[in-house]
Hints:
The chain is α+β, with helices and mostly antiparallel strands. The chain is built from 20 helices and 23 strands. Helix 3 (about 35-55) packs antiparallel against helix 5, helix 8 packs across helix 11 and helix 12 (about 435-445) crosses helix 18. The longest helix has about 35 residues, at about 375-410. It is globular and about 80 Å long. Belongs to the type II topoisomerase GyrB family.
Amino acid sequence: MAKKNSYDGSEIKILEGLEAVRKRPGMYIGSTSASGLHHLVYEIVDNAVDEALAGFCNKIQVTIHADNSITVVDNGRGIPVDKHPIKKIPTLEVVLTILHAGGKFDNAAYKVSGGLHGVGSSVVNALSKRLVVQVKRDGNIYEMEFARGKTVKKMTVVGKSQATGTTITFWPDDEIFETTVYSFDTLHDRLQEMAFLNRDLKIVLTDERELTPRVEEFCYSGGIIDFVKFLNEGKEVADGLKRPIYLEGKNEADNPAKRGEVEVAIQWNTSYSENVMSFANNIYTPEGGMHLEGFRTALTRVVNDYARKQNILKEKDANLTGDDIREGLTAIVSVKLGDPQFEGQTKAKLGSSFMRPLVMKVVSDGLAEYLEEHPKQGRTIVNKAMQASKARTAARKAREATRRKSLLETAHLPGKLADCSVRDAELTELFIVEGDSAGGSAKDGRRRDIQAILPLRGKILNVERVGDHRAFSSDTIQALITAIGTGVTNASGDGGDFDISKARYHKIIIMTDADVDGAHIRILLLTFFYKYMRPLIDAGYVYAACPPIFGIKVRKKIYYVYPNGKEPEEDILRRKIRELGFDYDSDEEVEDSTNGKVKKKKRPYTVQRYKGLGEMDPKQLASTTMDPRTRILQRVTIDDASAAERAVRELMGNQVEYRREYIERHAHDARFLDA
């Protein structure tokens, strides 16, 4: 008997208003994790910056309140409050309650804008359990209030003011977000970046969650020139290039949607890494796009043409590659355009094709002129690229040796790797552990079908300090590359022979001791992954294991205590002991009074501090740190490439003074040190 078809019109759901946003928030803000939470702030700030780009705003204030609500204040024109001609309700209400309602779909209100789809403010409203907006304009102060995207207080006049601007306060919805606690550092880095990209715009960040509010102000008269200097702090700048090279230009197309402005700032340092960041209408484009393609093409062509013209490159010499020229380069490519085409709401890549030739022309003309007028600096740039070319040849040979070694060792696999039996990479895990002691316990405690163990012999090289050829000559790094199977990217994070489809494991877990040595090895490994296998991090394949720091033994049972990254170890231990129903006492014995006599008795529990994974037997290590059912893993992510690159550079680079400054700045946070 044929089954009745029950699929009819009743099955088709229509999501009214902002229901679609609440149903699928990830489509609009990327995720409901901490990244998405912070994206709410960026959406409101982007709108304020658009007012600055239009020439009506010069100050933005962002405040984190004690309850983790956020207030963003700008002194722009203020969102219009007049009755909308079509919707017949205040335009302010339209902007905050209707998707794709905004002043950025043509070039009338905004010639350049970061908020393009008209969803920013309304999405924030939809994902907030409460939102209050105040608008100053026309001599009045107007106010409205919303709850989860719905209007709960109609627009009213609440005061008088001759100033103009918009103030939005919102409380993120804890029904939507995994966390509603904002990170000061995350907002700090993004807002500082925004100030760099908008010369003379003042942005103030205040955190009221501390006893004394923490306030940071950003305002840069040099714009992206100051940005490049900031990114190069802690690095030795190439000889003669102390001041970044600044290039700018624009076109005057008849069609406003095809008009664009280009700003580029470049400076070389003596490191081996490339750090080129591209932006379109103040929005960071991590996947680049047409503007970045135009920049790279022009840079490679101009430097090669100059080297030929000056006879530094001989006729028989091959051209310098883009990787050679960009080694040690720090650059900001910032474009402004009327109708940018992005890929998706998160705007990771610029697709506007007319920007490629525009950026090429601005960079080609400007850089060629600079090199002609600065022959000493031009020779420095070319010579540095030629040295990089020689080193890259040596690195290629080392890579090829690593690849050959990988092919030869396929049957046995590298070093002391204990591989797993399952070959489906989606199911398998690689634990990278320090030393044979921990490696032995891990091998005995693992699930042999899906868990592989690779013990490291000593500490991995700090790849931030050495060139590619030195890194790829390291036995430890060769073992890592061979075990993982993907190959490596270039130091710029792309190209190379990296192929993520060849990853032999979809979970690569760094499992080190819970002490300073273990932390050091972990950061060295993360530096390696960041520089040569960054797509693994982006894909969510890299994790850090979280072994327990204490074991509390009560009779024959052990209760494990794990770090949380927020509290001192001793505070966590005290709380756990109280949860078990005991009084915490730091002494071995406690006083007790029985029948009028005082006697000593042992505590009903003992505490063991685990400094090394080797101190745990295989069964303990498996149950606390390796068993998928009971372990704690921390996924390694890169939410902000600028902040990540800066942290790696300052803490792992050659300049000692930055590590000293970091220690001095954070010394008060350190309560328990391994000595």
